[in-house]
Amino acid sequence: MRIAIVSNDNESSKDVQARLLSACKQADFSIDQDHPDIVVSIGGDGTLLEAFHHYEKQLDHVRFVGVHTGHLGFYTDWTVDELDQFIDFLLNDSGESVSYPLLEVALEKVDGEKNHLIALNEATLRRFEGTMTGEVFIKEEKFELFKGDGLCVSTPTGSTGLNKSLGGAVVHPRLDTLQVTEIASLNNRVYRTISSPILIAGDEWIRVKLDDEFLAGVFMTLDHLSFSLKGVKNIEFRIAKSRVHFARYRHMHFWDRVENAFIGLGDRDKKG
Q1: Would you call 212 a catalytic residue per the annotation?
Q2: Which of 51, 135, 147, 168 could pair with 191 in a Cys bridge, judged by C-beta atoms 3.0 to 4.6 Å apart?
């Protein structure tokens, strides 16, 4: 089995990386940073997002697994204290995995050029100087004329991040859906939005046509990445055909992750 290791720079992560490298060498595993079968992320969710985008062209055969060395994350199942147990599972890997939906973003430029991007968590459209204006379509039908700070489109696994902070719903990752949440929308007689998060079906898509007057000041974030949308006239969001695969060494219920991250009940409090 070929293993790649992606780590952040803190001391705890470096220590985990060294121990993992030693265990892999003893097991005659191949450390292959270019074409791995499994990518081990050491750090937090941010480190795993970096790993995901580094290997996004290999999603058809790569599985990811995370060891967190800081705050508990949704993508990092293992703690430093569980490293020996994790290594044992890794050395006895059975090939099991669980997959989650991804977000595909298609950018159409004013010159007709099209680019396709992918996100694990979410994409946002924002204008930091003044408000952003754009027409929002669901499939081919115009839904609303939006004016405000921006829009967030999230995957189910990304629903616990920025989307939740904006008042969006937490969505189970078995649902093939995308969620759109508004960022400080402006509602008056001219501009009228739904003023509520919306979930779209798996065979639907969202298209945003930006107002040419404000186009130069609009930026897109794609997970941890950010860039200007200057020269882009249409942005389309849909569920990607590809999916992300995580190595499954033990089952962790999604709602247990949510409870642990946001509520933190003790074992006594969980008993009915």
Answers
A1: no
A2: 147
